[in-house]
Amino acid sequence: MRMRLAGVTIGLGVTALVAAGSLAAQTPIPGEFPDYSPPRTADGHPDLNGIWQAMTTANWDIEAHGAGPGPYPEILGAWGAQPPGLSIVVGGTIPYQPWALEKRRENFERRTEISVPGDGVDPPLGDPELKCWMPGVPRTMYMPYPFQLVQTPEFVLLAHEFNGTARIVRMNWEEESPVDDTFFMGWSRGRWDGDTLVIDVTGLNEDNRFDRAGNFYSASVHIVERLTLVSPYHLMYEATIEDPNVYTHPWTIRFPLYRRMEQHAQVMEFKCQPYVEEMLYGQFTKPGAD
Amino acid sequence: MRRLSISSMVVTATATALCVAPKTWSQSAQDDWTPPRTPWGDPDLQGIYNYATVTPLERPVELGEQVVFDEEEAAVLEEEMAYAMDQDRRDGGNEADVARNYNNLWTDTSRTQLTEDNRTSLIVDPPNGRLPPRVEHPMTPERAAAAREAELSLKRFTLGFHESYHDADVGNRCIIRRRNEGGGHPYLPALYANTAQIFQSPGYVVIYAEMIHNARIISVDGRPPLPDSVETWLGSPRGRWEGDTLVIETTNFLKADDIGRTGVVYRNADPETFRIVERFRRTGPETLEYEVTMSDPNTWTQPFTIRVPWNETDGQIYEYQCQEWNYDLYFWLSGAREREARGEVFDPDAELD
Q1: Which residues touch A98 (CB under 8 Å, ≥6 apart)?
Q2: Which residue of A47, A273, A283, A290 to mutate against B (max B Cβ within 10 Å)?
Q3: Which one, of A9, A4, A38, A31, lies nearest residue A227 by Cα?
Q4: What confidence tens digit (pLDDT) does each residue in A160-186 have?
Q5: A50-54 and A147-151: which strand pairing?
Q6: Cβ separation B213–A166 shorter than 8 A
Q7: What is the rounded radius of gyration, in angstroms, for the C-alpha atoms of chain A?
Q8: Which residues sit opposite A234 in a β-bridge?
Q9: What is the greatest pairwise CA distance in chain B?
């Protein structure tokens, strides 16, 4: 059952990277960081165990963005304002097909209009994060919450704080995703490429978003992530996104993850579901009831 | 069959051991086996496990002091359970079929098997195999009002007149799995999804229960508990190794009074005084023993201990989506408003089955 990835699967990943051409930067880019020889686990691979967190504002918009008021500034003031940030997209912008650029704009404009499961609205409305849904891949990697990476020879667990979402990465796993267009967190299969952990993600559903700005993919998306330790405290993250139904060619995001260094740092419990119930279901509450 | 490999002599010996020293019964069978360790020297508990069993939580009263079933009783019971669990047996007409809508696709067939030692209860202490009596509190106006509201909430839920999402329980709301049925700590068998995977890294054990995707990260490095001001639905676990046993104490449960009628801790005990201590120990290459002791002087007259075998499974953990596709809340709430619009009225004095 647990075998090396079939040649076919590796071939797909390689094809995606090659097709991305120069956009599929190496992780790390030679000369970007001083040479680093990472500590290793008993099976000889770099030890990626730890609590990590991105320090980008990509959850607002993975492309470059200035500051903005955010939704409901009349209530939330500076608390709800959008902080400015640079793009995590290699090359700056996402190579959308023209129709998809229009859909992104609509996603953004309607991001706080919500539908609830069962009400028949298809596709569902609103940013999934706003509704406390699992944040999806790759968004979960740059949400402003930490995650813990637990590395074993057969599995790598990524346990995220937001919504208690976790992703099991099956190492050297032959079995393809049992379903299409289903998983928020994908069918994730890992392998080591030298000192880089490579994760092949399929089976993703089309309800995921990249950010609050409405950036999106379709169910045909295929993502290849690359995680490389570049210092004791920095884990470079790179993901190539391939979806011929939405983009003109594959593209890549890239940013460092930072090791959380506080004494006793831990992933805390952030169950957001209770905090969205009034937003989602308050409209159906019996008048006068609490 | 599995249980035929246990001679009646062994069963008898087990029964005796259970009565005399409940915590050591399963050690004798594995004398020639050394529990594995991780490369950094901790006991290795890793694997994917199923903890379903048909063994009841509480021993049926009529069994008195009988700690284990004999072979014949066990065979009959497992057969009966296999029949009862078969939701696709089509022997009760349309209404029964609808009531069995959690059909064989859902049900965990491991639930047709007794624990390997054919125990009559998962509770091993107190010795009668039953939950201790509840503490009786003098009835105050506050307690009476709270009890009445819980009763009404259950009636609204059961009769389809949900006033708000608060009438659904924590499981229906996709916050945590209901504490009474396990699927989190305490890990007790439920209808389905009795699967968990254990991961370890230096200083940590993570128990990932599939249902409501809960990766429970247990630090095993001597760090202090969280401050009391931090309250959580699932509590904050801290682990330690005692020989080959992982001991977990969990604190910092939510104390808010608006969490609904099912509460956050086992059987709606008082989160202020509730104490839960769990022990995991590898008993064989493919088995763990899970033992949990719970106490709450405000709820039970004495502590009690539950022991559940964890058996390695060929199954996998899959993504458990909950609030993302939770049709229940919409249908219950919009349905209740629709019924009211049609003039139907909730009867607060209705008798529930």
Answers
A1: none
A2: A273
A3: A38
A4: 999 999 999 999 999 999 999 999 999
A5: antiparallel
A6: yes
A7: 19
A8: A231, A258
A9: 71
Rounded CA-CA distance A93/A107 in Å is 17
How does A69-83 read in b/e, with b if 16+ C-beta sit within 10 Å? Answer: ebbeeeeeeeeeebe
Which residues, other chains included, contact A101 with Cβ-Cβ below 8 Å and sequence gap of 6+?
A: none
Residue located via tokens 């007149």? B161
Contacts of B20 (CB under 8 A, 6+ apart): none
- Please tell me the pTM assigned to this model: 0.89
Q: Is residue A276 exposed (0-12), middle (13-18) or buried (19+ Cβ within 10 Å)? A: middle
Measured between beta carbons, the chain A residues lying within 8 angstroms of B320 are none
Nearest CA distance, B326 vs chain A (angstrom): 6
Q: What is the pLDDT of residues B172-213, one digit of tens each?
A: 999 988 766 655 789 998 878 889 999 999 999 999 998 888
Nearest Cα residue to B290 out of B306, B276, B304: B306
Whether B340 sits inside 8 A of A164 (CB atoms) is no
**Domain boundaries in chain B?**
2-341
ipTM: 0.90
Nearest neighbour of B173 by CB, restricted to A131, A150, A273:
A273
Tokens at residue A35, please?
């040479």
Residue type, A149: L
> Exposed, middle or buried: residue B246 (CB in 10 Å: 0-12, 13-18, 19+)?
buried
| Cα gap A177→A282, rounded to integer Å | 37
Residue B174: how many other CB atoms lie within 10 Å = 25
